[in-house]
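Form 7-S
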Amino acid sequence: MFTKRQEAELITSIQGKGEIPVKFNYLGDGATKWCAIAKKRSGGGINRMEYELLTKRAGDFLKSYAGSGKVNIIDVGCGDGSPVLPILAELKKHKINFRYVPIDISPEMLDIAEKTINAHHNCEVKKFLIDFELGNFSEITYDLKSDGSANLLLFLGSTLGNFSDRNRVLTNLRDSMGANDFLIVGVEMTNFAKINKLLPHYSEKIVGDLLYTVPEQIGIKKSNTKYDAIWNDKDSQVECWIFIVNDQKIKISLDSFTLEKDERLLLARSLKFNEWTFTKLMSDVGFRTELLTTSENRSYVLSMVQPTRYSV
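Output:
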């Protein structure tokens, strides 16, 4: 299931930070569990808001690619692939050739995304199995343009809020981009006065099914835990925790250790932005905003950015 590097990261994260990185839940059958969440969101959650906003503004996002012979749609953290469909539809409408390039830590998720795109478009799909949290992938973006095509990176689904070190993730994306490449980032906006309306979503069964994927694989019995989703006002994020009710032995490959009663593990975080915190984060990392658009109720933002080249 896990590579040696992933095993090491998982062990050190549990022992050193008291956290199971959420990204590992997308491996194996966790990919199918995620698709169940995405399907539900598409009916009225953030996926639906993002899809409608992308559909409405796709033409504006793609003005910079008018006249391009071919565009590489680089879907970072691709999920099931469905969020990019409005962009692909707009490219097809304007008869611009495109190559779909999903990037993900999960081979199962890459296969699901490929299947989604093939069901709607007859296009080249070039998959890359990498963990973009660990470093840049400039060799991929550079090679993709060797045929004269242009790059458009997409980081959708409010995925940015899932990472503890968002600056590092954004820096990896920035350092993977050429001077003429663009990146579209989608994030959920939050009215901090209505946080209690958000929390029930994180306690739904389909969310728990996904977040318990890795704990159960390494020996944590759900019956030996208590699950809770809370709001961390200091860090402006929802946090999903499990509390150990009875001593629990953990086994990862050849390593084993015990989590004692009353210890806790962080299974997921979801940072909530407002327009100021989001645009400041992007600017601080080194991105220039080309286009920023929000949904009618201002609950979702899409921002098209480009790396800023500073002169000394």
